[in-house]
């Protein structure tokens, strides 16, 4: 039985997935232009893994809403990561369906710190 309200849980989690996908795309694009030993490769992998975490928390039958890609492209990876972290705050992470959500929050905080350290 699904104990979570789809509008207050799954929709923000879907938005988090969108934000993280865009952030990963932007970081990987920057990493492609950087040297092979650039820390951007590590950041890109971390953001991609966080995107996978967020997506794995969604129900299998959940359909992500369409987003305005142009609007997301105007934001920096740091802005996207920060917005994703902010969207986690009201999530009911105590619910069994979101048992791994706390790790996503921790990972997002680490990624934000790393992105700031890299000048994003």
Structural summary, described in words:
It is globular and about 40 Å long. 30% of the residues are buried. The model has no long low-confidence stretch (mean pLDDT 90). The longest helix has 28 residues, at 6-33. Helices cover 67% and strands 0% of the residues. It starts with 5 loop residues before the first helix and ends with a helix. Helix 1 packs antiparallel against helix 2 (40-57), helix 1 packs antiparallel against helix 4 (77-88) and helix 4 packs antiparallel against helix 5 (101-117). It has one domain (6-118). By secondary structure, it is mainly alpha-helical.
The best one-word shape is globular
State Rg: 14 Å
Instruction: Quote the average pLDDT.
Output: 90
Low-confidence stretches: none
Helix content: 55-70%
Q: Main sheet, how many strands, which sense, barrel?
A: none
Q: What is the string of helix and strand elements?
A: HHHHH
The number of strands is 0
Q: What is the count of DSSP helices, taking H or I runs of 4+ residues?
A: 5
List the helices and strands and how they pair.
Layout: H1 6-33, H2 40-57, H3 69-73, H4 77-88, H5 101-117
Kindly list the characteristics that best describe this protein.
single chain, 120 residues, mainly alpha, 5 helices, globular
